[in-house]
Specification:
Length: 322
């Protein structure tokens, strides 16, 4: 099964890069900024320059150049939002200030009622702002992943709890050989200003269940700051953002808050290389959290069991035996 290895200590080199993505500079010794995506040529280039509008404002640049793995990947930061206007005024400039510069920031809005979209466009004009096609954090993330044009996809919460300055450490873990860089508040160098004792205890119990079911060594299952290579998307088999909403009003599996656990399970089930990256979680800046300790803990446990059944069924169908 997939082993989880700790990331090497992050180095904080001197950096000099522009505020806008797509340009390259670098003054630190051995420092190489994240470039824009590899130049597209001919018909592919023209297609990328002419995005196709999907349902509910979901813009999908199709076709796009295939994502590639390189020492200098283009990095797409996906920020799902719902009523996070005040936080975005701080979070978006902080992401833009990261050095080396990221390739793009994609804000995926979940029909906010607090002017989130207008604030995002005003605060960071070059950010791409799209509207998710259904509801739920999972659908928002899938919409952002599908719209992204980078080589690396970074999952980034809009509430201010994640530190943008950690993005280079996640990218370094991937460049050093990981398929999936898993943020952890509980490995050496990580921490949290926000987690309660009850949530910490629950997380530890869920870690134990996940590690036994999937053969992993996760130290922080319930943390949403992660990054992975974009070429893994087909293996993850997330719900298609273009699929219609269920007529009965229910949610498609993977569209909700279970998305982070689903990703962790599917990466492990696919025997991909996982590296944990130390991360310090900060307190939410404005607004109220959507976390519900017992309800969300139960949801994660159900997700673990459902994804384990899915893994076993697929292995049985393929004739795989452990």
């Amino acid at each position: 099964m997939s082993a989880v290895t700790p990331a090497r200590p992050a180095v904080d080199p001197e950096m000099a890069a522009p505020a806008r993505p797509g340009h390259q500079t670098g003054s630190g010794t051995g420092q190489t900024p994240f470039p824009a995506s590899a130049p597209a040529r001919g018909a592919a280039a023209r297609a990328v320059e002419q995005p196709i509008d999907g349902p509910e404002g979901f813009r999908r640049p199709r076709p796009r150049p295939a994502p590639r793995r390189s020492p200098n990947p283009a990095v797409s930061v996906i920020v799902p939002t719902r009523n996070e206007a005040r936080n975005l005024e701080i979070v978006l400039p902080a992401i833009a200030a990261v050095r080396p510069a990221v390739h793009e920031v994609i804000v995926v809005d979940g029909n906010s009622t607090d002017n989130t979209v207008a604030v995002a466009r005003r605060t960071l004009p070059w950010a791409r702002v799209i509207t998710q096609t259904r509801k739920g954090k999972g659908n928002a993330m899938a919409c952002g992943f599908s719209a992204a044009t980078g080589d690396v996809l970074v999952m980034f919460d809009a509430d201010g709890s994640a530190d943008p300055n950690e993005i280079p450490a996640f990218v370094k873990a991937l460049v050093d050989g990981a398929d999936f860089a898993k943020g952890s508040r509980f490995c050496k160098g990580g921490g949290s200003d926000d987690i309660t004792l009850l949530r910490k205890s629950g997380n530890a119990g869920l870690n134990t269940v996940a590690n036994r079911l999937f053969g992993t060594k996760y130290s922080d299952l319930c943390y949403g700051y992660n990054a992975f290579w974009a070429d893994l998307l087909p293996q993850l088999e997330l719900p298609d953002p273009a699929a219609p909403k269920p007529e009965d009003g229910s949610m498609i599996w993977g569209d909700g808050f279970e998305i982070e656990t689903v990703l962790n399970c599917r990466v492990a089930a696919a025997d991909l290389t996982i590296t944990e990256v130390p991360s310090v979680e900060r307190e939410r800046m404005f607004g109220e959290t959507n976390l519900r300790t017992f309800a969300d803990g139960t949801r994660v446990l159900r997700t673990l069991m459902a994804e384990h059944r899915r893994m076993e069924q697929r292995r049985k169908a393929s004739g795989y035996s452990r």
